[in-house]
Structures are given as C-alpha cells and as structure tokens.
Amino acid sequence: MVSSALAGLTDLDGAITQIQQAIARRATANRQANLGMLQHARGRLQEAEAAFRLAVEKRPGEPVFHYHLGLAYSKAGDKAAARQALEQALKLKADFEGADDARKLLRSLG
Description:
The protein has seven helices and no strands. It is mainly α. Helices cover 77% and strands 0% of the residues. The chain has helices spanning 4-7, 12-25, 29-42, 45-58, 63-76, 79-92, 99-109. The chain has one domain: Serine Threonine Protein Phosphatase 5, Tetratricopeptide repeat, CATH 1.25.40.10.
C-alpha cells in the first residue's frame, strides 16, 4: 500500500525522509502506513510499529492497517499483539487485500 509516488524509489532512507516531510505537512493515516511499510522494509521494527499504530488510530476501520501492524508485531516476536491485530483486521473485513496472508500468519502464530 505504498503510494505510487514512493513505489519507484530504491533509496529507502530517501523515501523515509520524503514521507516524513509529507507527514510533517499533513499527517494522514495513509502516510503513516506508508512510513510504516518503509520502516519495516528497512528493518526498523519499532518505528514501523509506531507508524502503523498511528495509522490505526487515525483510521481504525481500515483492516489493511491492522494487518500491517500485525505483521510488524509478528516480526518483532510479539505473538499476542500480532494475533490481536490480525484478528481485528479480519473482523473488520474478511476479504480485504491480504486477508489470506493474515489467516496464514494467524495459523503460524499458534
């Protein structure tokens, strides 16, 4: 769900700077989610989690944001938080883009 303006960037640090500047101008849920994806790709899991939490706070009804938060929690080893975020994503919409992956990840969490 990275915006098309950022999709072609190969310099993750440059992309992170660009989206942080956009957030400084106007902090939207999508921009927070984009920052989370970039931070996640960079391996900065705490920063990714923080950005996804902000996206969820701004748009709690968006299942993809909960899913991405669940991914970040899972990668960081927080199975309980990952499970909660993934279950919330599926509760909001059972067939969102990524729902099958969310179910697979839930099964792997036990």
